[in-house]
Structures are given as structure tokens and as C-alpha cells.
Specification:
18% strand, globular, 48% helix, single chain, 108 residues, four-stranded parallel beta sheet, alpha/beta
Length: 108
């Protein structure tokens, strides 16, 4: 079974440790950038990043996001999200099937 890592603010990520995920709480961009190389080397199957951290390390995230492994997921923080995860999922699905099928679901 592949390991899962989650990076974000302490409140958003520590609860995931109960599910067996490796949580990496960070408080600023520097900490997120410092942790990133270690995570890349630990062979995670999935890396989850909260939206605020995603915005800060988008360049590092993009380097890995095009590879098959790890799967890169963006989630909203506990304080509420702005929809970056859904936007990213929409782009991935559109790229895979050639049509924005998620937009049709929202219109119905």
C-alpha cells in the first residue's frame, strides 16, 4: 500500500495522522519549500497539499504533478477553500477526456 503525505497548516493536517497519513504541518512558505525535497524522496503514492500551501509552492508542485506517481491533490484548509482543488481536478479531467465534464454536472 502506498504511503500518503499531507502538507498544510497544523489544524488542517494533523487529523489525517489518525488515518495513517504522514502529516507535515508548516507555518510559512520557507518550511513548505524545505520539506518538499524530503517528500519527493520518500516514495509517496499520494501527496495532498492545502490550497494556501499550494499557492506558495505551485512551481515545485508542477514539477511533480505531471508524473504518474505521486498523485498530487489540492484540498481546502479547515478555514475554507477557494476552489483550487476543483479547478485542478477539472483541468486534469479535461486533459484526460478532452471535455470539461465537471462543468456540465454543475449546470444540471
Amino acid at each position: 500500500m502506498s504511503k500518503v503525505a499531507i502538507i498544510g497548516d497544523k489544524t488542517s493536517v494533523l487529523g489525517f495522522t489518525a488515518l495513517g497519513m504522514d502529516a507535515y504541518p508548516v507555518v510559512n512558505t520557507k518550511e513548505a519549500r524545505d520539506i518538499w525535497p524530503r517528500i519527493k524522496d520518500l516514495d509517496y503514492g499520494v501527496v495532498i497539499v492545502t490550497e494556501p500551501i499550494y499557492l506558495e509552492i505551485k512551481d515545485l508542485f508542477a514539477e511533480v504533478a505531471e508524473k504518474l506517481k505521486p498523485a498530487m491533490v489540492v484540498i481546502p484548509p479547515t478555514t475554507g477553500g477557494v476552489g483550487l482543488g476543483l479547478q485542478r481536478l477539472r483541468r486534469i479531467v479535461e486533459k484526460a477526456v478532452g471535455v470539461d465534464i465537471l462543468a456540465k454536472e454543475e449546470e444540471e
